[in-house]
Automatic annotation (TrEMBL):
SUPFAM superfamilies per UniProt: HlyD-like secretion proteins (SSF111369)
Organism for this UniProt entry: Urbifossiella limnaea
Protein name, UniProt field: HlyD family efflux transporter periplasmic adaptor subunit
Keyword Secreted: no
Record-level GO cellular component terms: efflux pump complex
């Protein structure tokens, strides 16, 4: 019998440390995960390889698109083919740009899309207070430099007067020198005469003294002294003459130096005046530039037209470097509603029948039901559209477009046979022909099953029949759009086929 007083606490074991968690060995990756991954990959490969057995593609036979080339008589006015396009401005919409060097804030937009504007009408009003101040400042700088230029020219005139005065001083110096020299020469001549007279008196006194006829020794000595005095006066007169001549030469030289200095001053002042004139001319250019900036800040319509789009709003900063170079500062787009054209995507298979100047008829049934607009082929883009397998061709309307037409409206264009100057000619034409039994009616259109050889899938593609083909009962039908000469059409196995379904070509249907 069990003891009810037994102490079970004595069986408790006290552990001294935390029991470590049990970790699986790393070998489970190579022993468990890797085998499962290999088995899964192998199973996926087998499933992919046998997918055609599990879900087999539909077996189909294909038939190629036939290309018929032959001579066809061109009948004037006969419809050659039809293509779709859209209306657009002729030659292009016009972007009205802000051509200012500075950047300005749009204060007010004065037009809305669809508004008719006259040439010169202001479209967008900019905040031009700064440009007006620049014009005022440039005008004041110009006036200041004009005053400086006039002052410089006055200095040149003053320097010219100084040159004239210096020339007069030279003439006066020469005249005074000549007068002084003449007076000194007269004094020298007079002194020479006095010497001769004194010498003669001395000789007479000496003869008288020697002959004892008269006179005395005193008078002889006085006569000789008079001779010496006359010679001294003569020498002094000669010295004065030389001095007068030298002084006159010096004064003339000084006056000539004055002329040279005055001419140098005049040349310097003339150069400064030319510089001042150039500064004034530069200031005038700055005035014109500021006025041009202010004029360009007024955004006006370059011609009468309709606003096609607005690219700004009040508060936006425009001008300067606010946009890319190809659309720099465009604020409004205009077009002339009296000049519209139609851009048509002509299939490459029909492009051989396009001739510049050829007649066309344009129909815009949604807007102009029952109306046909005459036009001519203006030019082609000389660049094919790879994605559409077409060539853009531009058609110009022969008369003023109806007021209901708008850019980007879809239009149907009928290309007609052009008139010939001689008898009707046979032209080589290439046509894409498909068996009529392969056509699938889809509402108001027609589709055919086309093989996608890359993906191996079926594509239910919409095609466009040639005019009148829908009403014919022939075995083959001409297709003008939606197919390429290299396409393969699904002829058999179409029952239960869905677009995008996988198919397998088992042969060609004859």
């Amino acid at each position: 019998m069990a003891n009810p007083h037994a102490d079970l606490g004595a069986l408790t074991v006290t552990r001294s440390a935390v029991v470590p968690a049990i970790r699986l060995p790393r070998r489970w990756v190579s022993r468990v995960a890797l085998p499962f991954a290999l088995v899964g990959g192998f199973a996926g490969l087998v499933l992919w390889a046998s997918w055609d057995v599990v879900s087999p593609p539909a077996d189909v036979k294909v038939v190629p698109v036939r290309v018929q080339t032959g001579a066809a008589e061109v009948v004037v006015g006969r419809e050659l083919f039809r293509a779709n396009g859209w209306v657009e401005p002729l030659p292009r919409p016009t972007d009205v740009t802000v051509q200012t060097e500075g950047m300005y804030r749009v204060a007010e937009v004065l037009v809305y899309p669809g508004d008719r504007v006259e040439a010169g009408k202001e479209l967008v009003r900019l905040d031009t207070a700064r440009a007006a101040l620049d014009v005022d400042a440039a005008g004041k700088r110009h006036a200041k430099r004009l005053a400086a230029a006039r002052a410089a020219r006055a200095d040149v005139t003053k320097a010219g007067v100084a040159v004239t005065n210096a020339g007069a001083t030279v003439g006066l110096a020469k005249a005074e020198g000549e007068a002084d020299a003449t007076a000194a020469a007269a004094d020298a001549a007079k002194a020479g005469v006095a010497v001769k007279a004194a010498e003669l008196t001395a000789e007479v006194e000496e003869e008288l003294w020697r002959s004892k006829a008269a006179g005395s020794d005193v008078r002889l000595r006085q006569a000789k002294q008079a001779v010496e005095l006359a010679k001294a006066e003569r020498d002094a007169a000669a010295a004065r003459l030389g001095k007068a001549r030298t002084g006159a030469a010096v004064r003339v030289t000084q006056a000539e130096l004055g002329i040279a200095a005055a001419e140098a001053d005049r040349a310097s002042l003339a150069a400064r005046a030319d510089e001042a004139d150039q500064d004034a001319a530069d200031a005038a250019v700055e005035v014109r530039r500021a006025e041009l900036e202010l004029a360009r800040a007024k955004v006006v319509a370059p011609f009468a037209g309709v606003v096609m789009g607005l690219h700004v709003r009040p508060g936006r900063i425009v001008g300067g470097k606010d946009a890319l170079a190809e659309s720099k500062g465009a604020v409004v787009t205009l077009y002339d509603p009296a000049r519209l054209q139609v851009r048509v995507e002509v299939p490459v298979a029909k492009f051989a029948m396009v001739r510049r100047g050829g007649p066309v008829e344009v129909e815009v049934e949604d807007v102009l039901p029952g109306r046909k607009l005459a036009g001519t082929i203006a030019y082609d883009a000389h660049l094919a559209n790879v994605s559409r397998n077409s060539v853009p061709v531009t058609v110009e309307l022969a008369s003023t477009p109806p007021v209901e037409l708008r850019p980007d409206m879809i239009a149907a264009v009928r290309f007609l046979a052009p008139p010939a100057s001689g008898p009707a000619k046979a032209e080589t034409a290439r046509r894409l022909v498909v068996p009529r039994r392969l056509l699938v009616a889809d509402g108001g259109g027609v589709r055919v099953w086309v093989l996608d050889p890359v993906a191996g899938r079926a594509d239910l593609r919409a095609v466009e029949l040639a005019p009148g083909e829908a009403d014919r009962q022939t075995e083959a039908a001409e297709v003008v759009g939606g197919l390429n000469p290299t396409d393969k059409l699904i002829a058999t196995g179409r029952d239960g086929l869905r677009p995008g379904a996988r198919v397998r070509v088992v042969g060609e249907d004859r």
